[in-house]
Amino acid sequence: MADSDTDWTPAVSFYFNVKVIGFDDNYDYAFKEVAGLSAENKYEEIREGGVNDFFWKVPQETIYPNLVLKRGMATMDSRLSDWVVDSIVNDFQKKIELHDIEVSLLNHESENLITWTFRNARPIKWTVSDLDSMKNELLVETLEFCHTGFTVSADDSMGLGLLF
């Protein structure tokens, strides 16, 4: 935990890693971007009889967006690539595999600060960036996963003071 206000260092968003639980080939998870780290409560508005200046918001469900991962197009064969292909273009000939995916924000010493664990994830979309001979850019693939929600854990010894 931080001893004083001067020890506080904000977390950076560019140092993170991604892991698919159950896969051993960790070399295949160098992603440039992660999106979908949010949750939203849907609610029903209920008006109270005789009270016209407000209404109650009763929670109904929590909505999680898809997890979206972007990286330079991988030219190697890997367990992750096989999983994506099997899940999206297999005509449902194989059993759908669900895996937890961990996204960990790291500090300058490569220690986990925050970890989001996406439960029961499976690939649902694969996209490759446009090919353009007039641009000098890497080919980027985007992998999108649906999931049943996520949990968040933080290392309390890092002194983040998170609300969750």
Structure description:
This is Phage tail protein. One of its GO terms (molecular function) is structural molecule activity. With 164 residues, the chain is mainly β. The protein has one domain (12-44, 55-156): Hcp1-like (Pnp Oxidase, Chain A). The protein is built from one helix and nine strands; from the N terminus they run E-E-E-E-E-H-E-E-E-E. The protein has one helix at residues 79-88; strands at residues 16-20, 33-35, 40-47, 55-63, 67-72, 99-106, 112-128, 140-146, 150-154. Strands 1, 2, 5, 6, 7, 8 and 9 form a seven-stranded antiparallel beta sheet that branches. It has a two-stranded antiparallel ribbon with strand order 3-4. A hairpin with a 5-residue loop joins strand 6 and strand 7 (112-128). The longest helix has 10 residues, at 79-88. It is globular, with a radius of gyration of 20 Å. It starts with 15 loop residues before the first strand and ends in a 10-residue tail after the last strand. The relative contact order is 0.22.
